[in-house]
Design brief:
hydrolase; about 190 residues; serine-type endopeptidase activity; Umud Fragment, subunit A; protease
Length: about 190
């Protein structure tokens, strides 16, 4: 009995240390945010950043893509049980976490593209020095959207290799993500 108690006393702080180090850390799985974020980069987000401030255009954020970017992903009973147990400890993995750049916030009108191939936000051409291919238009296909209340329009920096709001323009929600699905802005890369 004493051994179990000592083991429990040793494990609990370890769980909290592991949680504090990893709960807001994500690994980049794809090339959609290159060149700024490379496959395998570990990023950290600030989960409290939008408690008092609104998301801004240009913010690189991690958000919950379930129901939009991952609409058909199913889970086994065992996976739900395991994730539920980790959730009780505050360590549930974010399987549907996606990282993209906010291009439009509520009320913005976004159009592709001006005569130089740049996106236009509210009629103004957008300078995007972070794009993977600066010599190509900001999007391979034209679009015109208005961002509704409580949503944001997100694009990858590697526009020719990114599934983002453009891919969902005809879907419910029009490719816009609800602001409450944003985990937080990226604050560091390792």
């Amino acid at each position: 009995m004493l051994v179990c108690l000592l083991l429990l006393i040793a494990v609990i702080p370890g769980v909290f240390v592991f949680r504090a180090y990893n709960v807001n850390t994500y690994t980049i799985p794809s090339a959609s945010m290159e060149p700024g974020l490379q496959i395998g980069d570990r990023i950290e987000v600030d989960p409290g950043a939008y408690e008092t401030n609104e998301p801004q255009s240009g913010d690189v954020v991690v958000f919950d893509g379930s129901g939009s970017f991952y609409p058909y992903e199913s889970e086994t009973t065992m996976k739900r049980f395991f994730d539920g147990a980790l959730n009780l400890l505050g360590m549930a993995p974010q399987h549907n976490a996606v990282v993209k750049r906010i291009i439009g916030v509520p009320g913005d009108t976004i159009e592709c593209c001006d005569s130089n191939g740049r996106l236009m936000v509210n009629g103004e051409s957008l300078e995007e020095p972070y794009l993977a291919e600066l010599d190509r238009p900001a999007s391979p296909s034209p679009f015109l959207v208005e961002v509704p209340d409580n949503r944001v329009f997100l694009l990858g920096d590697n526009r020719y290799n990114s599934i983002d709001s453009r891919a969902l323009l005809g879907a419910p929600g029009g490719g816009m993500i609800q602001k409450n699905k944003i985990y937080g802005p990226v604050i560091s890369t390792r």
